[in-house]
Amino acid sequence: MTGWLGPDEWQAVLLSLKVSFWATLASLPLGLWVAYVLARRQFPGKQLLNGLVHLPLILPPVVTGYLLLISFGTQTPLGRTLEAMGIVFAFRWTGAALAAAVMAFPLMVRAMRLSIEAVDPKLEQAAATLGASRLWVFLTITLPLILPGVIAGAILAFAKAMGEFGATITFVSNIPGQTQTIPSAIYAFLQVPGGERAAWRLVVVSVVIAMGALLLSEWVARRAAGKVREP
Amino acid sequence: MTLSVAMQHRFDGFELNVAFEAPTGITVLFGRSGAGKSTIIDAVAGLLRPETGRIVSDGEVLFDSTTGETTPPHRRRVGYIFQDARLFPHLTVRQNLGYGRWFAPKTAPREDLGRIVDLLGIGHLLARRPAHLSGGERQRVAIGRALLASPRIILADEPLAALDEQRKAEILPYFERLRDEVSVPILYVSHAAAEVARIATTVVALSNGRVARQGPAADVLSDPAITPIGVRAAGAMLDAQVTQHHNDGLTTLETAGAKLLLPRVTQPPGTHVRVWIEAQDVMLATQRPSGISALNVLKVRVNELRFGAGPGVLVQLAFGDAMLLSRITRRSADALSLAPGAEVFAVLKAVSVARDAIGEQPNA
After folding, report:
1. In 10 A of CB B51, how many CB atoms?
2. Per residue in A63-106, pLDDT tens?
3. Cβ–Cβ of A133/B145 closer than 8 Å?
4. Which residues from B are below 8 Å from A120, CB to CB?
5. Measured between alpha carbons, how far is B198 from B175 in angstroms, rounded to an integer?
6. How many CB pairs under 8 A join A and B?
7. How far apart are CA B299 and CA B257, in angstroms?
8. In this structure, what is the dihedral angle of CA atoms B139, B144, B149, B150, given to the nearest 10 degrees?
9. What are the distances in angstroms from CA B81 to CA B70, B153, B203?
């Protein structure tokens, strides 16, 4: 495949996979927690949290990217604090991962929240009467029952992260090998004369990865759901 | 071991205010649907917080509104048998049974898995998932799961209500065995009189959010003033001994010096059983009737007449040390000039007593 794809293109594909993988994995625990809180708890400010989570879905991606830039840029207080701790987002692949994670977060939370809401709280109560603390109830009852939803949410987030363009390019620019993911690379190739062939190859790769992810999620979710079918 | 409950709670414009004790054996909370029975049981389990009250199990305070003390549900060690079983769909029967046991303190007295599995007849189901069980099987697994959690109290919320008659008949004997073999208090919610009569050691009759009467099952059920689920379901519970099975499908039982002929019971001669006789199946006559198809005619004495709002009268009848209830019209009571102390004859058709109205007596 390296022969078919040029080195720049290959680099963009690998970077996209890396960025999306880490964006999904790192936001998974937080996404699960937020989904659980939104599905099961009542607290003041719940609607505000819900709105905040959904914001990246409705804001123009460029706006989200710009907000990330002014929050996490190297000249900002937050950026400097993180830099002191050895974490830099600006113009690095980590920044691309952060942008992808933020943009994919609402989709992930939505899928997980729906699956948590579908779990009968009566089962969780039953587990509590049998001696399971809240954490154990979550680990042994809720989590296994929502596994199809968690997987669906994660794969949806991965696919969204693979396609993220606007926020990424605004926040971390389009640096080959650093922040140039597949969409940025396609955009860059289309800006130069004779770049269409390279762009086309990346389009094909995009379609293959997206279809593959979708089929995988369907298969995994169906297997998991088959085991926990309600009586 | 004893469970003592005192609680007050308001919900849906209804006020519940009760206090009772549940000793070892089965204590039935008996009342209409919506009388607050499940609310009480949820409060004992810790799934609901009463407005005020105090719940003590075996000397340990589970809830006390004056001190604000409350034990979270997972530390109360109750075995809750839900009406809808609530088995975990992603676990096998064996894993469901083991779930509570895994969280029980290592020092807690342990029920033996094999013994419980035998008691409930679920050995062949261990590898299955709940989706592949019938309603009765599911409920039996739910009972086993609660027992194996080493509970200090067993709570059963109408565990038979969702089942058909055949399944009920299948599971009731397990509760009879539980009552006699397990040493923890069992709090059992029911609105079915015949079920209560079969299994209860103690009855707490609830009416309008209050305890109308509590005491030994036979006393509470034969009290004509206590009809928590309405006069239509009133009746009395007789302790009887099986004396003889006949070839024509009938069985003779002896109760309080009198003989009863009933459709064949399953228990062998010599067994002590409980028989539930509905008040509306008992007719009264001032003279011993002759040329009548009914097989049972008992000489009884009128103890009390209880007039309700409708055209009926509930008559409490005594014979030996036992009580019967008869539900007749006010007009008949007047025509027969019934009054406390009158000697009359109670007439009972053998076929009016259903087979599932007969169950085993608790071990003394």
Report:
1. 13
2. 999 999 999 888 888 888 888 888 888 888 999 999 999 999 99
3. no
4. 86
5. 9
6. 75
7. 11
8. 130
9. 22, 11, 19
Give DSSP secondary structure letters for B100-116: HHHHS-TTS----HHHH
For A135-173, write each residue's pLDDT tens digit. Answer: 999 999 999 999 988 988 999 899 999 999 999 999 998
Report the CATH fold assignment for B3-221: Rossmann fold (3.40.50)
A123, A144, A228 member nearest B86 (Cβ): A123
What is the C-alpha end-to-end distance of chain A, expressed in Å? 48
Which pLDDT tens digits describe chain B residue by residue (364 residues)? 789 999 999 988 889 999 999 988 899 999 887 788 889 999 999 999 999 999 999 889 999 999 999 999 999 999 999 989 999 999 999 999 999 988 888 887 777 889 889 888 899 999 999 999 988 899 999 999 998 998 989 999 988 887 777 778 778 888 888 888 878 899 999 888 888 888 899 999 998 889 989 998 888 888 888 877 677 778 888 889 999 999 998 999 999 889 999 998 888 999 888 888 989 899 999 999 989 999 999 999 999 898 877 788 899 999 988 899 999 999 999 999 999 999 999 999 988 887 777 888 776 5
Query: Where along chain B do the CATH 3.40.50.300 domains lie?
Result: 3-221
- Helix, strand, coil shares of chain B as percentages rounded to 5? 25, 35, 35
Backbone angles phi, psi at B320, to 5 degrees: 55, -130
3-state class (DSSP) for residue B239 = strand
Token pair 């009887």 in the structure block, residue: B240
Give the list of residues 6+ apart from residue B340 with CB closer than 8 angstroms, or none.
Answer: B302, B303, B304, B305
- CATH topology for the A7-228 domain: MetI-like fold (1.10.3720)
Strands B282-285 and B343-348: antiparallel
ipTM comes to 0.79
Torsion of CA A4, A166, A104, A20, to 10 degrees: 30
Domain B235-360 bears CATH identifier 2.40.50.100: yes
By the CB < 8 Å criterion, does A141 face chain B? yes
Q: Rounded to whole angstroms, how far apart are CA atoms B283 and B348?
A: 7
Residue spans per domain, chain A? 7-228
Q: A128 vs chain B: nearest CA distance in angstroms? A: 5
Q: Is A210 left (phi over 0), alpha (psi -120 to 50) or beta?
A: alpha
Cβ partners under 8 Å of residue A169, min gap 6: A65, A184, A187
Alpha helices in chain B (DSSP H): 37-45, 93-103, 113-120, 135-147, 165-181, 193-199, 217-221, 330-335
Q: Where in chain B is the domain with CATH 2.40.50.100?
A: 235-360
Written as six digits, the tokens of B333 are: 């009571």
Contacts of A124 (CB under 8 A, 6+ apart): A137, A141, A142
* Separation of alpha carbons A157 and A104, rounded Å: 5
Measured at the CA of B130, the angle between CA B125 and CA B133, to 5 degrees, comes to: 60
Asked if A231 reaches chain B (Cβ–Cβ under 8 Å), the answer is: yes
Residue A130 to residue B103, Cβ atoms within 8 A: yes
| Of residues A4, A10, A25, A23, the one with CA closest to residue A177 | A10
The answer to whether A174 and A93 are in contact (CB under 8 A) is no
